[in-house]
Model the fold of this input.
Amino acid sequence: MRNAFHDQLDAIFEDLAAIGRLVETAVARATRALLTADAGLAEQVISADVDIDRARERVEDDAFQLLSLQAPVAGDLRIVVAALRMVTELERMGDLSVHVAKIARLRVPNVAVPEQIRPSIERMAEVAEHMVRRATSIIAERDVEAALDLHKDDEEIDSLRRDSFVTLLADDWSHGVEAAIDAALLGRYYERIADHAVSIANRVVFVVTGQTPQEAGV
Done:
């Protein structure tokens, strides 16, 4: 019975990693749509979000079934609850990708990101994509060391966002309020994607060690 229970737990984590890969694709495509004014690609991101939502529902159903039928002990209960929280984080990352895609679509045929702020947005997007990819790997491998290390990337994206405000508020910003609002929102979306990746990593640390990242060494 316990072996079957742990097989089901492993299957849930495999499903979480699969959702992570869907999110990776969503973030990458949304960014490409944003930087190239590709309305068709933006629509793909928006339409594909339903796949992430449905996958989240399946994970939730499986987790609730485990809770109701297997009466997990404390350690196993911790894992199931963490899985439920992680799937919510993943879904929110997908939603943030949709927000990026919607800004891209709204400004077509123009590129939503002015050249003056483009390097900052490109780098934030690059870091966010990298963090989603690492978070997916951390889920699949339950890699505590990589999870603890992910905080360094989060610090970079926080710094990039702060720097972007300097550009947006500078006297030589010549692209108007609308472009400034778009850029500020985009920075926030990528920052939140990174935050969710860190939160997922933190939950993996707790699943594996029974400790928070602070207790485990961050």
Remarks:
- The CA atoms of residues 135 and 197 lie 6 Å apart.
- The chain has a mean pLDDT of 92.
- The domain at 1-215 is CATH 1.20.58.220 (Methane Monooxygenase Hydroxylase; Chain G, domain 1).
- DSSP finds eight helices and no strands in the chain.
